[in-house]
Each structure stands twice: as structure tokens, then as C-alpha cells.
Please model this.
Amino acid sequence: METLAKAWQLLIEMDADLLAVIGLSLKVSGLAVLFALIMGAPVGAALAIWKFPGRQVLIVVFNSLMALPPVVVGLSVYLLLSRSGPLGSWGILFTPKAMIIAQTALIFPIIVALTREAVQPVFREYRGLLISLNASPVLVLRTVLWDARFGVVTALLAGFGRAIAEVGAVIIVGGNINGLTRVMTTTIALETSKGDLELAMALGIVLITLALTMNAMIYAISQIGRKYQEVRE
Amino acid sequence: MKVVALILTLLAGPMLAQDRTMILASTTSTQNSGLLDFILPQFEAVSGIHVYVVAVGTGQAMRIARNGDVDALLVHHRPSEDIFIMQGFGVGRVDVMVNDFVIVGPTADPAEIAVSTSAAQAFEQIMSSQNRFVSRGDISGTHLREMDIWHDAALLPSGRWYLEVGSGMGTALNLASGLNAYILTDRGTWLSFRNRGDLTILFEGGTGMRNPYGYIRANPAQFPHVKSDEAAALGDWLISVEGQAAIGAFRINDVQLFCPDALPTPDQSQDQHRTCAANALQR
Model:
């Protein structure tokens, strides 16, 4: 009860520090899901559409990579961006950029796998038509991705959910630096380690409330879109 | 010419201002207790340098410093620090401050360590009583000290009672509190820890419980990209009269957590530590 009251208080007061932490969480995970979508959706659609050697292997690989532990992704990106790593000269370790890269890598397989799932039935429907029209690959991709857009939105939500909730990757490549790379999940981990369980839990409730609001909004938008489409048809 | 100089200054100005930052790898004890949040703004006020803190265990701090990813270290395990410097990764080590380790455990104290005469003896009693003991197990300064104490006692801890958690001080304390187990912790983290449950300090003082913190700069010869001027400025400030006073002024519930340890003469340093330790025992 006390925890709920504290969460409510945090939500109402929204002091500048907390606001900055929430803002960075949304920015990092939002951009990560955007980049992962731009790169992953075409890959997922391509896997659903075209037959090529190694396709089955790729499908299994992407499906498995959905279960990649964030810590492993964080460690890989750390080794890449560390001063003694191949991209060390970029000097972006312990910055939000590094966190965006790590989360993009983390959710890329999710976007690929779920987009493929969404596109496959759509493509089965359109296959004959697109072949008879002799459509270019780009047109095929655009058509099926647009028609499978509600499934792609689900992929986007799944990716965003995983990104905003993970702590293992961002804490390694971001360093949980106050005022620079501290996000919701790393703050919760920090407060837990300080033994301030009420504050940690209250922040957890704030995180869930945010995720709930975002999901509800996107769900509402896609429902409106679906209705509109039905009316048109 | 003057115009060119002015334009250059204007162009360089904001860039320089932005450059006045540095990354310090510190231990969780200095961060979680709130010490760094208390003293670093004071340093920024006089130097204009903003210090970004990455708080990890001493082992991980040195690991990322070996990769050249931080500008300086504030850590607490002297033997590892000496190796780190010998290998050429760090320069300019200074003693900054000291606090002490304590053994906390269930109030009932089933292993009766409250009457132990040394940390090694306390560990021995915990082991023979088979009461649960939580070990950090993460090569942090505290974990390394714990291993040193087992070594002193000539014991190899293992068994169902010995729980290696492989995580930070706070997480380990949460676990010990939940299991009512014994645990070695630094006093600073313990004093600022909020979820103590039935745990209390059972053993403190004595040789081997002193916990000195050292500041080390990344070696610019090894890592040309590090902010060596900024790192040197922070080092100088930490051991200056102002810096030492700031460390001494940090308190939680009127209790001083860290004792400044960089006074100019060894005698004074001894006195300072004695006063500080005396304070600690009064609590």
C-alpha cells in the first residue's frame, strides 16, 4: 500500500530528475525499435517471400536470437565499442548512442522473426497476383509489408516492450551514469541495491504504467485503422 | 587578427566547455552511499569539470580501465591497485580516504562472533557453525578482502552454508537480510542500506578491517585519448584541504562514513584515522 502511494506520488510530482530518466528510457528504446524496424522489417518480409539457400537456417537463427540474453548483447557491444575494441575510436561507450546500438541489436531478431510470421500468410494470398503482375522486388516488399502492417505493429510493440524492460545491456554499455545514461530499469536496479525497495518498486510501477499507456495508445490507433479499412472495403 | 582570434575563441569556447567532463570508475560503496553525489558537485563548482561516474566493483572497474574506457579510478584493494600500476595502466596513485569493513549477521548471533578477537576467528566460527554466509563472489574490493580473511584463517570456504551471489554489495545485503545470513560489508554501504531486516553489526575493528580507497589516473602514455588534465585536477582536489574536508563532512544520520586519509604527514594521517576509527567504535 505504501509502495502504491509512493508510486502515485512519484507520478504526480514528476521531478526533473525522474522526468529526465523517463525521457531517456523512451528516447533510447524508441529509437532502438525504430532502427530495428527499418532494418528488420524488410529482412523479415524477405525471409517470408523469397526462397534461397540457407533461408531455413536463417529463420531458425533469428527465432533463436529472440531469446538472446541482454547481458550477452551488452557485453558484445561493449567489446565492440571499448577503446581497445574495433570501434573504440568512435568514443561512444558510456553514452546513450551505445545504449541505442545495444538495444537495436537486442530487438532486431524479434522484429525480423515476428515480421516474417506476419507477412507469410499475406504473401500466400498475394503470391499469384504479384507474380502475374511481374512486380519488382521493392514493390512486392512494400505491398506485403503494408498489408501485414497490423502484424508488424505487434512486432514493434514486442520489440519496444523488450527494450524498455531490459537492464542487462544498457547497464554494461551505458554505465548507469547519473544525468547521462541512467534509465528507468537501471535506476530500479540501483535503488534495489541501495536497499530502498519501496522506491524501486514505485519506479517499477511507474515503468509499467508508462508501458501500459503506450501499448493502449498504439492498440487504439491500430483498431481505428482496422475499422477504417473494413469500412472502406 | 583580433577578429580571427575572437571567432576562434567563440568556436572553441563551447567545444572546450563540453570537453570539461571525465569518466570515473568507482566502487558501488562510494556511489550507493551518496558520497560522490555529495562531493563531486563541489569539485565541479571550483573546476568546471563534470565527472560522470560508472559505479562497478573494483575488479570490473580495473577491467574496463585496462581497456582504456575510463579516465580515472577510485577503488579499494591495494594489492590489485599496485599490480594495475605496475602493468602500466595507471599512474599517480594517491590515498584518498578510509573506512572500515564490518561483519554483520543475525541479531541472535548463532556463531557467537561478537566475542571473536579477529576477523579470521569470526570467519572460522561461522564456518564451523555452518550458518549461512553470503559472499559477493564478484572480485570486488570487498570480495577480495573476504578472500584475504579466509586466507588468513587458512580456510577454504565451501558447502551449502556458503553462498556466492556474484553481485554488488547492495544485492548481496538484500540476500543476506532475506536469509538472515552473515556477510562482510564496508561500513559506508551498511550505514546507508535501508533493508537491514534482522541484521546488525557483530564484528568490527581490529587489523585487517581497515578499508583504504585509492585514486588512480589512467596512464596517458598507454591511452592517449584519456582526459588526463581533468583526471589530474580531480586527483589534486580530492587530496586538497577542500576535498578532504568535503569527504569528512559527508554524513548519513549524523554518522561520518569516510575518513579523509591524504593528510600531508604520516603522523597526522595516523591521528586522523585513529579519531575516525574511535568515532566508528562509539557508534
The domain at 18-196 of chain A is CATH 1.10.3720.10 (MetI-like fold). Chain A has one domain: 18-196. DSSP finds ten helices and no strands in chain A. Chain A touches chain B through 21 residues (CB under 8 Å).
